[in-house]
Amino acid sequence: MTTAGQVWDLLRAQVAPRGMVEVPLGEACGRTLRTPVRAAEDMPAFDRSAVDGFAIPGGEGSSSFLVAGELRAGDPEQAAIAHGCAYHIVTGAAVPKGAEVVMLEDAKEEDDRVSFLRRGKDNIRRRGEDARAGDVMVPAGAGLTEGCVALLASIGCTHPCVTRTITACHIATGNEIVDPSIQPRPGQIRDANSALVQAWAQSRRISLSQQRLGEDEAALRDSLRADCDVLLISGGASVGRHDFTGAALREAGFEILVTKIDARPGKPLIVGRRGDQWAFGLPGNPLSHFVCLHVFVAAGIAAMEGAAEAPTLLSGKISTPIAGNPRETWWPAREELPGLCPLRWKSSGDLTSLAAANALIRVPVSGLAAGGVAEFIRTA
After folding, report:
1. Range name among 154-158, 196-200, 223-227 with the lowest pLDDT average
2. 3-class SS of residue 378
3. 215, CA 20 to 30 Å: which among 81, 95, 134, 290?
4. Cα–Cα distance between 317 and 335 in angstroms, integer?
5. Mean pLDDT of all residues in the chain?
6. Distance of CA 260 to the CA centre of its chain
7. Across the strands, what pairs with 258?
């Protein structure tokens, strides 16, 4: 059996990044940046007032100043302030050369003159204190968050270069599954996996097509001709008489690289490659589906996007003990202050924990004690 770490190493080594496109900022959030973005100028580009107050000649020892005007945000930078003069200044306004800024709360204004209760604090955001021209502001491989988009806008990067949209085809197999809108007959179950995969793909901006095939081997072989980056096949990944996903993938020209993982839930995971196209045969039980999507398929997608290594393993304390198992376990949990709360689940077919889960705890074979530090990945 293949360990989780070995699967990640395989995907990082063999999955090639997809092509790049430029997109407007309004479409960039959630995408992966492919080329580093540098500051075109110093940030801030000029000395700016950090407060509302008064600008006066720096270091001048006068006790009272003539209020000579106002400096507003957006006004051109003014020359040095004349001896004995002060200017009202607002937050963000350009500070004249050699001036100091005294905050409004420390000023006493009477008629056309102002004096100050205290001075000496640097209330100026200095040119280049945030970044210098040429500094990398967002590195290649970064996932573009709302904050990244705001930063890109502030430095004039209006069309960042990102990975093109990843395409995926999801095929649900099994005669027992029916559309969630249908009342199942005895022996049937509603198809939760298709909804799970759809929600997972939407959260990652993956372009997804889906179909439900039952146990139709001919239809599956036909579907494996799909032109997409990733094929996801739900069910049929184990070794039973009706588990034909592996054989169908081989017949379709895929090299099978993984057939079982040394982890639970999700042991019967298939990973295959046909050129630049990748296939994941996912075990049919929905909790196994959830784990394999977040732990393994997400790592493959990250490599396709040219993103930082995935999954991102974090550390946190668990609130209750988790017993060991001969295989590594990915345990559904709720990440909440002050740590991680493991959730109850009975089997790989148990969906009940997933409504509250936003993390998966990596449990070693030896188990974890209450209060112990565990590795985990976020799922939401």
Report:
1. 223-227
2. strand
3. 290
4. 10
5. 94
6. 28
7. 271
Pairing of strands 113-116, 339-342: unpaired
Q: CA 288 to CA 268: how far, in whole Å?
A: 9
Helix (H, G, I), strand (E, B) or coil at 194: helix
Domains in the chain (CATH in brackets) are: 4-17+165-304 (3.40.980.10), 20-41+144-163 (no CATH), 48-125 (2.170.190.11), 314-378 (2.40.340.10)
pLDDT tens sequence across 172-207: 998 888 898 999 999 888 999 999 999 999 999 999
Query: What is the Cα–Cα distance from 36 to 160, expressed in whole angstroms?
Result: 9
pLDDT band at 243 (very low <50, low <70, confident <90, very high): low
* CA 245 – CA 270 distance, rounded (Å): 8
Distance CA 74, CA 334 (A): 47
| d(C-alpha 322, C-alpha 311), whole Å | 22
Q: Say how many CA atoms lie within 13 Å of 81 toward its Cβ.
A: 28
Q: What whole-number distance in Å separates Cα of residue 70 and Cα of residue 93?
A: 10
In this structure, are residues 267 and 1 in contact, taking their beta carbons and an 8 Å threshold? yes
Alpha-carbon distances, residue 265 vs 58, 171, 298, 357 (angstroms): 68, 20, 16, 15
Token digits of residue 129: 């204190």
| Residue the block writes with tokens 């106002």 | 70
d(Cα 35, Cα 22) in Å, to the nearest integer? 10
d(CA 160, CA 306): 14
Calculate ∠ Cα 362-367-369, nearest 5°: 100
Q: Could you report the per-residue pLDDT of 292-332, keeping only the tens digit for each?
A: 999 999 999 999 999 988 899 999 999 999 999 999 999 99
Tens of pLDDT, residue by residue over 356-372, are 999 999 999 999 999 99
Instruction: Compute the distance between CA of residue 380 and CA of residue 369 in angstroms, rounded to an integer.
Output: 25
Span 198-225, mean pLDDT?
91
Residue 206, CA distances (Å) to 19, 220, 229, 295 in order:
14, 22, 10, 17
